[in-house]
């Protein structure tokens, strides 16, 4: 009724006489306004949702790596241009399959493609480490650190290689540098990205003793206690070192430390 009343009021002159032509004009004006509003509304509707871009070959390969589908990852990476980064990724996939010789060849190809790509050099060092060629591993890790002195994972790898050569002081120094750069470096997992970090050592009891010593020296008492416990559980025989060496002095009043020293943990 409001629409009709509106037209009715618009169609009478001041004397109250009905004017038909004015009625048509009013209808035309109203419909034009309504059409403009509809057009404006149509033009302001939300745009359609954007279509996600297709994954790159590198991204598809990374998904296969995360799913531990290493053969599929290799096949996918090989379809991409052979950049240093891509060759390194292929090397890591072969590394995960324990095909060390093939992995090493791809790391070498990555290094030749870009001699400044330190991740490939580090990863080649871990191949030598896995083959117990510790001298060559040390040489590769040092190359990395000349290019990238803040590479905490490589410092940790170097510490392990020195440890296996029984160069314990050098190992401790390298580990101190790794922990100073990244206090969580020993908890990192560097085998599915661009950099491989190897923490396998033969004498784990002694290795954990040195880790405890490094953490204690840095005031990380909780971590030091954790690795003292691990060292003892793995058969570390030189318990007296914890009671005599100056690095452990700050721990000696700690109740947990006293308990560790007073009990004989079960060797795992």
Structure explained in plain terms:
Helix content is 64%, strand content 0%. It has 14 helices and no strands. It has helices at residues 2-10, 20-43, 57-66, 70-77, 84-96, 100-113, 118-130, 134-147, 152-164, 168-181, 204-217, 221-233, 240-244, 255-262. α4 runs antiparallel to α5 (84-96). The chain starts with a helix and ends in a 6-residue tail after the last helix.
Question: Could you write a compact summary of the structure shown?
Answer:
The protein has helices at 2-10, 20-43, 57-66, 70-77, 84-96, 100-113, 118-130, 134-147, 152-164, 168-181, 204-217, 221-233, 240-244, 255-262.
**Count of strand segments:** 0
Which structural class fits the helix and strand makeup? Answer: mainly alpha
* Helix content, binned percent: 55-70%
CATH topology of the largest domain: Serine Threonine Protein Phosphatase 5, Tetratricopeptide repeat
What is the total domain count? 2
CATH superfamily of the largest domain: Tetratricopeptide repeat domain
Strand content: under 5%
Radius of gyration: 36 Å
List the quaternary state of the chains: single chain
The main β sheet shows up as:
none
Uncertain segments: 1-31
Distance between the termini: 91 Å
- Identify the CATH architecture of the largest domain: Alpha Horseshoe
General shape: globular
CATH class of the largest domain: Mainly Alpha
Output the number of helix runs.
Answer: 14
Mean pLDDT: 83
The H-and-E topology, N to C, reads as HHHHHHHHHHHHHH
